[in-house]
Design a protein that fits this description.
The complex is a heterodimer of chains A (53) and B (467). Chain A has 53 residues and is mainly alpha-helical. In chain A, 83% of the residues lie in helices and 0% in strands. Chain A is rod-shaped and about 65 Å long. The relative contact order of chain A is 0.07. Chain B contains 20 helices and three strands. The longest helix of chain B is centred in the C-terminal third of the chain and has 35 residues. Chain B starts with a helix and ends with a helix.
Chain lengths: 53, 467
């Protein structure tokens, strides 16, 4: 008899350990890209203010 | 129904040939840390490399790298290499038809799956495009061209213009067909079938070269020629028109002008190698019977259901690799939005070449180390008729030449080096495309994600196959 996929939960769970670095990195890169965008916005705003003054 | 599927799994085990599955024989690993920790460590190495590249690599170094011609080969050497290629091809085809039809007793399966498919591409990545010199169809095509020019007079029609839209799609399809044969077809190591396939491929190449010209056809539509040529661009040695030039390693890749189909070709190469590893793991073993059941329920017999199951697995893995690369490219597009995703995919596709090679080395290292030794025995008795031409027919494979741990370390090392090379190439190209180094680094966050994803996938597949 062939067990259903859920009977192999151990394999799937072990697989998650291999996927974890991708998830961690994706989160870190998302946070970093948000920071970069904010910095860029602030830079543009301060440049705009300087031009007005 | 379940019993039918179980029967199909057993059938698959019976049909699985000794040659193709030999790289699964790696013995028991006794590693100091769990395998998943290697994946974490490899990811850290990639992140550190990425930081190092953005801090220390501020100008493009590969894009316009110069090369220096160091030697010129006489015409006789070129002719001799072509003749050797044709002779070896002819002999392998002859062995496939005339020799024993037991795969392990015939030189054809080992030659095609181990030497032609694995050793030659790896050798090309080290020594330059050796395959171009020994390619039998290219040699015949060129010889035919010379003879026709000399004796044909002025009535011979010029070759047709190769369609731009077709690009390297024929090469991608050829590699997909070959990997289907290697990984899906039940009689994949049948010597006479392999010989027939080799002849059919040769005929297609000769017809293509006749219609479109040797150079344009081999550079676009000869699957093996194109793929091995891409690997050869990793090498510091560059062979062109009998001249040997030396350049920076990887610099040849930065000069690739991607054609339609180049992305598909590399995605097929990586995806098929991934499926080869993945199909030996527990996850696939737990999923495959359910897919088989589905096809059995549709009325297919066990062999067809098995073929369709493995075809689905192969296409799924190719799709997954394509998706990961596409996500990276779409992410890059968000940095300035000036180029379309397809344009960026072509501009960065060369970063997949070292990854593809790394996958080949990692997945097939044990095949080369073990099955590669069998050439000594098969050279003495290539047809399996009991001859002993060089006195080595009694040689057996020494499985102690490298241990299971050694294989694992080589696999991890190959994957890390391949992905760091991919990162370096992507970084160099980004410095050319984006005006500010800061913007270039930001665009490469996504490429870093792609590289880490491919590294984790590769190591997961290898560790699953080793369990």
């Amino acid at each position: 008899m062939i067990p259903p996929p859920e009977a192999h939960a151990g394999h799937w769970f072990a697989g998650l350990l291999y996927l974890a670095p991708v998830v961690v990195l994706a989160c870190a890169l998302w946070v970093q890209s948000q920071r970069d965008k904010r910095k860029e916005r602030e830079k543009q705003e301060s440049a705009g203010k300087r031009r007005k003054n | 129904m379940k019993r039918r599927a179980a029967g199909a799994v057993a059938l698959a085990a019976l049909l699985a040939p000794a040659t193709a599955s030999a790289h699964g024989i790696v013995g028991r690993q006794d590693l100091p840390i769990p395998r998943w920790l290697f994946v974490w460590a490899a990811s850290v190495v990639l992140v550190v490399s990425f930081v190092g590249l953005s801090m220390l690599w501020q100008k493009p170094l590969l894009e316009n790298a110069k090369q220096k011609i160091v030697a010129t080969l006489p015409v006789a050497v070129e002719v001799a290499l072509g003749a050797i290629g044709v002779a070896v091809f002819g002999f392998v085809v002859y062995a496939g038809f005339a020799g024993s039809q037991v795969d392990v007793d015939n030189i054809a399966p080992t030659w095609i799956y181990v030497y032609f498919w694995v050793v030659i591409p790896v050798a090309c990545s080290v020594f330059g495009d050796l395959w171009r010199a020994v390619s039998p169809w290219r040699a015949i095509g060129r010889a035919a061209g010379v003879v026709t020019k000399r004796f044909g007079g002025e009535d011979i029609a010029e070759p047709l213009e190769y369609p731009v839209w077709l690009g390297q799609w024929p090469a991608a399809i050829a590699i997909l067909c070959f990997t289907w044969l290697e990984l899906v077809y039940p009689n994949r190591t049948d010597p006479s079938i392999l010989a027939t396939v080799a002849l059919v491929y040769m005929v297609i190449q000769l017809v293509g070269m006749t219609v479109y010209g040797v150079r344009r056809w081999t550079e676009n539509a000869d699957g093996f020629g194109v793929l091995f040529g891409l690997y050869a661009r990793i090498s510091p040695f560059h062979w062109e028109d009998r001249k040997l030039a030396i350049r920076k390693p990887l610099a040849g890749l930065a000069q690739i002008k991607a054609q339609p189909g180049t992305v598909a070709l590399l995605v097929v190469a990586i995806g098929s190698t991934s499926f080869d590893g993945g199909s030996q793991g527990a996850t696939w073993a737990s999923v495959a019977p359910h897919i088989q059941d589905f096809f059995l329920d549709l009325g297919f017999n066990q062999v067809r259901a098995l073929e369709l199951t493995f075809t689905v697995g192969l296409l799924f893995m190719i799709g997954l690799v394509g998706l990961v690369f596409r996500v990276g490219v779409i992410g890059m597009r968000r940095v300035d939005g000036k180029r379309s995703a397809s344009q960026l995919a072509r501009l960065f596709v060369f970063t997949l070449v070292p990854i593809s090679l790394a996958y080949v080395v990692a997945h097939y290292f044990s095949l080369i180390a073990y099955q590669g030794q069998d050439l000594w025995r098969l050279a003495s008795d290539p047809l399996g008729d009991g001859s002993n031409l060089f006195g080595t027919a009694g040689r057996s494979i020494d499985y102690t030449v490298v241990g299971a741990n050694g294989i694992w370390y080589v696999q991890v090392f190959a994957l890390i080096v391949g992905h760091v090379a991919g990162l370096a190439l992507a970084h160099d190209r980004a410095l050319v495309l984006y005006r500010r180094a800061e913007q270039a680094t930001r665009s490469q966050y996504w490429m870093l994600g792609v590289m880490v994803a491919f590294t984790c996938l590769g190591l997961w597949l290898l560790s699953a196959a080793a369990q």
